[in-house]
Each structure stands twice: as C-alpha cells, then as structure tokens.
Hints:
This protein is α/β, with parallel strands linked by helices. The chain has 13 helices and nine strands. It starts with a helix and ends with a helix. Bound molecules: ligand C2E and calcium ion (CA) (3 copies). One calcium ion binds near residues 181, 182, 202 and 238.
Amino acid sequence: xxxxxxxxxxxxxxxxxxxxxxxxxxxxxxxxxxxxxxxxxxxxxxxxxxxxxxxxxxxxxxxxxxxxxxxxxxxxxxxxxxxxxxxxxxxxxxxxxxxxxxxxxxxxxxxxxxxxxxxxxxxxxxxxxxxxxxxxxxxxxxxxxxxxxxxxxxxxxxxxxxxxxxxxxxxxxxxxxxxxxxxxxxxxxxxxxxxxxxxxxxxxxxxxxxxxxxxxxxxxxxxxxxxxxxxxxxxxxxxxxxxxxxxxxxxxxxxxxxxxxxxxxxxxxxxxxxxxxxxx
Length: 280
Ligand code: C2E
Ligand code: CA
Ligand code: CA
Ligand code: CA
C-alpha cells in the first residue's frame, strides 16, 4: 500500500492538483455568475485611420467577481468554452451589445453605418441553432443585420474547416458582416481565404506591436494589408498603442485601427460620451 501511495504521489503532483481545484472553483463561480448576472459588456472603438472617425465598437465581456474584482476574459473564456458555459455568456453578450447599439441609434448618438462587433468562439460557432439565435437577437433588439459584425478567430475557422463556409454564407446572406480575428496567428491557406465570404481581416496585435521599432520591423503587416485589399476586404490593426505605429499603418494604407492609443474598452456610459464627442 505504501509503494502504491508513493507512486500516486508522482502522478498527481501537488501543483497539478492545485490547478485542477482552481479550475473547478472557476467553473462553479462561472455558473453562479451567470445566475447572478455578474457580467458587463465593455466597448472599444474601431477607428478609420484616414479620417479618424469611429466606425464601430467591439463588445468585450467583463466579469465583476464579488471577491476577486474584474476577472480577465483571457482567464475565464477558455474555461467557459471547455464547460460549454460560453453559449450562455455569448448569447447574453450579443443580446446586450445589439441592444446597446440600438439605444445609441435611437438617441441619435450613432450614425446609421456604425457597427457592433461581437466575438464568437469555436464552441458557439458550432451550435446547431446559431443562426436561429442570431435571428432572434436581431428581431428582439430591432437592430439591422448590417450593423452586426461577428468576429471569428482564424484558428476557429481552420478547426471547423468544411462546415464553416456554409455557416458564414448563411450569415452573409443576411447581410451580417464577418471579420477574421487574430489574423496571422492561425496558418490559413490563402486559397481557402479566397473562398470565405468575409469582410474584414483583423491583424493580430503581435504583428502590430513591433512595427514602430525600425523600418525593418514591419514584418507581415504590409503583406496582410495587401492580401485583405486584393480580396476586397478591409484591414483592422489590433492593439495600436503608439503614434509611430499609427503613422506606419497610415503609410501602409491600413483602413482601420483599434487600440489603447484611441481608447481602452469602455463601459456603456463612457462609450456613449465618447460617441457624443467624436466624429463618426
Ligand atoms: P480579442 O478578441 O483579440 O480582443 C482584443 C483584446 O485586446 C481585448 O482584451 C482588448 O481589451 C485588448 N486590447 C485592445 N487594445 C489593446 C492595446 O492597445 N494593447 C493591448 N495590450 N491590448 C489591447 P480582453 O478584453 O481582455 O479580451 C481578451 C480576449 O477574450 C478577446 O481577445 C477575446 O478572444 C475574448 N473575449 C472577450 N470578450 C468576449 C466575448 O464576449 N465572447 C468571446 N467568445 N470571447 C471574448
Ligand atoms: Ca475580437
Ligand atoms: Ca483579436
Ligand atoms: Ca486575441
């Protein structure tokens, strides 16, 4: 019995055990958070680089934990995906974000073409009733499909492969706009990209980050912008933090940017204030 116990000790090391417990705790907390509505949606502006106007917002979920404070989505979204809880959270975020844009339209704070981008995880993308759910959200919030933009990561698209094009096409048929998120990190084949009914490539922050260092550090950014434009898509640079990055992106003809240089993600009140005081 002693030898067995010793062997077990090697298999379940205390650090692993600790990690498993934390995950379990996080899952329990997430279930409670859904019941108690501890989630909030923040909005980060997407800016047209030549005119400096706000062209839309990305909805980013925040979790206000009763004891831990704000928990980063980078921490809880993966757990929510693994446990399937993402479908509840995602549905709620989409509903909330669509409703918010509709309110801004009614208050004449936002002009007609301003878009609301909502993230869709792989798991959500695989829901059999995804289309129904989106139709229902648009109907209930009375938002036009043209104002909704869905962000799907490049890796999610590659993972789902075959069925993806059909779903994207159904969304496109409804005039919902589509973005490929974190572009450049997921090894898309270019021929595949050509067949996807997508409007926008979002260039991952990891590519934008080094471009202000020196002239050799542009890396793949010019190529990605060229690919986007030659396929009739627009390009959004993610994580724009400095004036130098902005200047480089402008010379590269990148159409849109998002990042702390323009604004951090804001709660709905501050986002409305920003809308009221900015050109669109
Ligand atoms: P993402 O979709 O790539 O979102 C962009 C992330 O970059 C956000 O982090 C945003 O706050 C951050 N960011 C924006 N500008 C800058 C900048 O200039 N510098 C830096 N360093 N960061 C910047 P956040 O809000 O923590 O979200 C992290 C990830 O969690 C998102 O990455 C997305 O994958 C996921 N996520 C957030 N909200 C949702 C949601 O409602 N549904 C789903 N499925 N995923 C979500
Ligand atoms: Ca995104
Ligand atoms: Ca992204
Ligand atoms: Ca990301």
